[in-house]
Write a structure and sequence with these properties.
The protein has 759 residues and is an alpha+beta fold. 28% of the residues lie in helices and 29% in strands. The strands form ten sheets. A seven-stranded antiparallel sheet has the order 22-23-29-28-27-26-25. The relative contact order is 0.06.
C-alpha cells in the first residue's frame, strides 16, 4: 500500500480516533450470531455436487445449472477446499465473480440479472444500509450487491471506520472479477487505521515520558486489518465485517494460534505458518527453542527469547533482533515499524530494530501487566486495572520545572542533559542528590575520574558508600594502590553503618539507582560477617585437588560451632534458622527474593530475580544444604546462592529427565547433583548448563556430598565412590559411620566433628 499518501496530522488523528471508537461495532458479528466453520464440500454430498457442477458448467459457458440452484445455497453456502492446501477452504460464492467475468457478454448479463433477482429476494423488508451490505456480500458480483457494498464502503470511509472499509475491500479482492479497484483509497484507509505496516505520521508512537496515573480506558485491541478473526479449537476463520466466513483453515486442536492485523500465525507440530488475510499460506522459519510469540502487528510477527525480542517480517521474511535489556512482560504496542515494549524496569521504543528511547518507568511491573492505548497515548495497565498514561517526553520536558526535567532526563538515560537542566538550580540537599545521581548515571569510569567532586555531593553514609563502590568499579585492574584505598573505604563505611547497602559481589548495578532497588545487596553487617564466615564461592574457586582428600583424623568442634545450628529449624515468621543465619524466601508472582538475617534480625543480604511464569513453574521450594540456599521453581529452574553473600552458585534450567524433589548438592558453579528417585536413591543426575548425565548407582546411596568438582556418594554397601568416574574412595572410618556430612571450606562436618581437607 502506498506509504507516501498522507493526510494532515490533525485529520489523521481524528480519523484514527473515529476508527478506534467504532472498532467494536464494525468488527463484531450481528447480535446473537455464533460464528462456526462452514461445511466443506465432500464426496457424496448432493448439495456440494450440484454447486460443483454449476461452477464447472459456468466455466464452459453453460448458465443452466447455476440458474437451477436454490436461493438458500447462496445464503448458507458451502466451503470449497483449496487445491494446494486441503486444510484451507473458501466460501463457494467467492468463486462466482471470477467465473462470471470469463463469460461471453450475453451469458454474463444473464447471470448478473439472475443474481440481482436473488439478491433482491433475499433482502429483508425495510432493510437498512448495513443489512443490505451484509446480504450483498453473499451475492457478488450482482450489480445491486456491488452498489450496496459501495455505498457502505463510502460511509465507512467517511466516518473513519477503516476496518469495515478495508473489510469490504477484502471482499472485492477475494471475489475479483472486475468489481472495481480503489487502491488509492485503500492505501489511505490502511495508513489511517494505524494497524498496517505503513501508518500515517500523525499516528506514530511518540517518545514516551514518565507514566502518570489516568482513568482513561484502553481502546479495544485490534483484530484483523481487513477481516474479523475467529479462532475455535481446530479452526481459524476469516470473516467479513458482518461475521460471514470468507475462508477457513483447519488446524491441530492443540495448535497455538495468534491473530492480528494482516495475518494469523499457526504454530503446531508441522512448524510455523502464516495465513495472510486473503488466505494465502506461507511456511515461516523455525523459531528459536523457547521462543514466546507475542503478537502479529504492523506486518510482522513479534516474539522473544529471554531479553531479546524479534521482528519477523511476514512479507520479506527478514528477521530483526531488538535488545530489550530485560524480559518483556507483554505484547508490544505496534504502529507501523515502531514498537513499544514493557519490561519490569523500562519501556523501550524501537523503530524497526533501532532503539529510539529507553525510559525507566518506576512502576512495580511484573507478570500480568500489559500495554494498551487510549485515544491519544500509550497506556501501561496493571492486572488490577490500574492504568498509567505515557505522555510524550517532549510534552513533559516542556511543562516541567528544572528538577522535574532533570528527573525525567535521568529516567530517559540522558544524564548529561540532566546536569545541564540543574545548572541554574540552587544547591540544597535535593538538588545535590539529583546532581550526584546524574554523575553516577554517566558510569563508573566517570565516577573514578571525578571522585572528589562526587564525594563532595554525597551527604549520607549510603551516598558515600555508593560513590566509593562506583569509583572502585571504574578503576583499572592495575591501579592496585587506589583500589585498596577504595576497598578500605567501603569496608569502613559498612563496619560503621551496619545497614548501609552495598552491591553484592559480582552484581551488575546502575550506580544512579536507589540501592533499595538493586537485585543483589549486602548490608554493611552482612559484608563484615561474610569476610570471616564460610563460603561455597570461596571453596569452588580453589583447585579441585585441595578438596578431594580427607585427613585421617577428625577434630572436635568448639561447643558454639556444634550447638545444632547446622540443621534447619522453622521460625515463627516463616523463615528457617540455618548455620547461624535466618533465611527467608519471598515467592511473588513476578519475582523471587531471598533474604538472610542474623539471629538478632539484622539484615545481611538479599537477592532478587525475575520469576518464571505460573505455567512454567506453578510451585516453589526452598532447600538449605551445605553453604548454599537453593530455590526450586517447579521442575523448571534451580537457583543456588552462597549462604554467606548471596552470590550465584548456579542458575540452571532443569532438564525434563531430572526428578525433583530429591537430595540436591551444588558441586561447583552451574554444576549440581541430584539423587533420586526420592526415597530410593538409586540414580545420580549430574546437571550442568550444557545438559545432564544420569548414572545408575551400584548401590542405593546413603549420602551425597560435593567432592573436588564432582560428587562423592556413600552407598548402603559401605563403599564411597567419586562420580562421574565411579572411582572408589577410601574414607576415614569415623566418617563412614556418621550421618550425611556437610560441605565447608575447612572440610566435611558432621555433628560435633570436622573432617579437615588433607592438603
Amino acid at each position: 500500500m502506498a506509504s507516501h499518501l498522507r493526510q494532515p496530522a490533525a485529520l489523521a488523528l481524528l480519523l484514527w480516533i473515529c476508527s478506534a471508537a467504532g472498532a467494536v461495532l464494525t468488527a463484531a458479528e450481528p447480535p446473537g450470531t455464533l460464528v462456526l466453520p462452514l461445511p466443506v464440500a465432500g464426496a457424496g454430498d448432493r448439495r456440494a455436487a450440484d454447486i460443483d457442477h454449476a461452477l464447472i458448467a459456468l466455466s464452459a459457458g453453460d448458465t443452466g445449472p447455476l440458474d437451477a440452484l436454490a436461493d438458500e445455497e447462496f445464503s448458507a453456502p458451502l466451503a470449497l477446499p483449496d487445491k494446494d492446501h486441503p486444510e484451507l477452504a473458501r466460501r463457494w460464492t467467492l468463486a462466482l465473480p471470477v467465473a462470471v467475468a470469463r463469460l461471453a457478454a450475453p451469458a454474463r448479463e444473464h447471470v448478473l440479472s439472475n443474481l440481482d433477482a436473488r439478491f433482491a429476494s433475499a433482502l429483508p423488508a425495510h432493510a437498512d444500509e448495513e443489512a443490505r451490505a451484509r446480504v450483498a456480500a453473499r451475492f457478488l458480483p450482482a450489480p445491486a450487491a456491488v452498489r450496496a457494498l459501495g455505498v457502505r464502503a463510502d460511509r465507512a470511509f467517511d466516518l473513519g471506520r477503516f476496518d469495515e472499509f478495508l473489510g469490504i475491500a477484502r471482499l472485492r479482492d477475494l471475489a475479483g472479477g472486475g468489481l472495481g479497484d480503489d487502491q488509492r483509497r485503500d492505501a489511505v484507509a490502511a495508513t489511517l487505521s494505524g494497524r498496517g505496516p505503513d501508518v500515517d505520521e500523525g499516528l506514530r508512537l511518540q517518545t514516551p515520558g514518565l507514566p502518570r496515573p489516568t482513568s482513561a480506558l484502553p481502546l479495544p485491541g485490534a483484530g484483523g486489518l481487513s477481516v474479523a478473526w475467529t479462532v475455535l479449537p481446530g479452526w481459524v476463520l476469516a470473516c467479513d465485517p458482518w461475521g460471514g466466513v470468507l475462508w477457513q483453515f483447519r488446524t491441530e486442536r492443540a495448535a497455538q494460534v495468534l491473530t492480528g492485523p494482516g495475518a494469523a500465525l499457526v504454530r503446531d507440530s508441522q512448524g510455523v505458518r502464516a495465513l495472510d488475510e486473503g488466505g494465502a499460506v506461507r511456511e515461516l522459519p523455525a523459531l528459536p527453542p523457547g521462543a514466546r510469540v507475542w503478537s502479529v502487528a504492523g506486518g510482522a510477527a513479534w516474539f522473544s527469547t529471554g531479553t531479546q525480542a524479534w521482528r519477523l517480517d511476514l512479507i520479506g521474511r527478514g528477521v530483526a533482533r531488538l535488545d530489550l535489556a530485560g524480559e518483556p512482560l507483554a505484547a508490544p504496542l505496534v504502529r507501523g515499524d515502531e514498537s513499544l515494549w514493557l519490561t519490569a524496569r523500562e519501556v523501550a521504543l524501537f523503530a524497526h530494530d533501532r532503539p529510539v528511547q529507553r525510559l525507566r518507568h518506576g512502576l512495580p511491573a511484573g507478570a500480568g501487566w500489559c500495554l494498551g492505548a487510549d485515544r491519544t497515548h500509550p497506556l501501561v495497565i496493571a492486572p488490577d486495572g490500574q492504568r498509567w498514561r505515557l505522555e510524550s517526553l517532549a510534552e513533559q520536558l516542556a511543562a516541567g520545572t528544572p528538577m522535574a526535567r532533570a528527573r525525567l532526563l535521568l529516567a530517559a538515560g540522558r544524564p548529561e542533559e540532566a546536569l545541564v537542566a540543574l545548572a541554574g538550580v540552587a544547591k540544597d540537599a535535593d538538588s545535590d542528590a539529583m546532581r550526584l545521581r546524574a554523575h553516577l548515571a554517566r558510569g563508573s569510569r566517570h565516577a573514578a575520574e571525578r571522585a572528589d567532586e562526587l564525594l563532595a555531593l554525597a551527604a549520607t553514609p549510603q551516598q558515600r558508600a555508593t560513590v566509593h563502590q562506583a569509583v572502585l568499579a571504574g578503576l583499572d585492574a592495575a591501579d592496585l594502590g587506589r583500589r585498596a584505598t577504595e576497598e578500605q573505604a567501603v569496608a569502613a563505611l559498612g563496619d560503621a553503618h551496619g545497614q548501609v547497602l552495598l552491591a553484592g559481589p559480582g552484581a551488575t548495578v546502575d550506580w544512579s539507582d536507589d540501592p533499595r532497588g538493586w537485585a543483589h545487596v549486602l548490608t554493611g553487617a552482612g559484608a563484615r560477617s561474610a569476610r570471616t564466615g564460610p563460603s561455597s564461592t570461596a571453596l569452588f574457586a580453589r583447585p579441585a585437588h585441595t578438596w578431594s582428600r580427607i585427613a585421617a583424623t577428625p577434630t572436635a568442634l568448639a561447643d558454639a560451632a556444634a550447638s545444632g545450628t547446622d540443621g534447619e529449624r522453622r521460625q515463627d515468621d516463616g523463615g528457617y534458622a540455618y548455620r547461624g543465619q535466618v533465611v527467608h524466601l519471598a515467592s511473588g508472582i513476578a519475582r523471587k527474593e531471598v533474604q538472610v538475617h542474623a539471629p538478632d534480625g539484622t539484615l545481611r543480604w538479599w537477592r532478587r530475580w525475575d520469576a518464571l511464569s505460573g505455567l512454567q513453574a506453578p510451585g516453589v521450594a526452598l532447600v538449605l544444604r551445605d553453604d548454599a540456599v537453593i530455590v526450586l521453581e517447579g521442575q523448571a529452574r534451580l537457583t543456588a546462592l552462597d549462604l554467606a553473600t548471596g552470590a550465584t552458585l548456579a542458575q540452571l534450567d532443569l532438564p525434563a529427565g531430572v526428578e525433583l524433589p530429591g537430595e540436591i548438592t551444588v558441586l561447583g558453579h552451574d554444576h549440581i547433583a541430584v539423587l533420586g528417585p526420592l526415597g530410593l536413591n538409586r540414580r545420580l543426575d549430574l546437571v550442568t548448563a550444557g545438559g545432564y548425565r544420569s548414572i545408575a548407582l551400584p548401590s542405593p546411596a546413603r549420602w551425597l556430598v560435593a567432592w573436588g568438582g564432582g560428587a562423592l556418594v556413600y552407598g548402603e554397601d559401605g563403599v564411597a565412590r567419586s562420580f562421574p568416574s565411579g572411582a572408589t574412595i577410601a574414607l576415614p572410618a569415623p566418617l563412614a559411620t556418621v550421618a550425611a556430612p556437610l560441605l565447608s571450606e575447612a572440610g566435611l562436618r558432621s555433628g560435633s566433628l570436622l573432617f579437615p581437607w588433607d592438603k
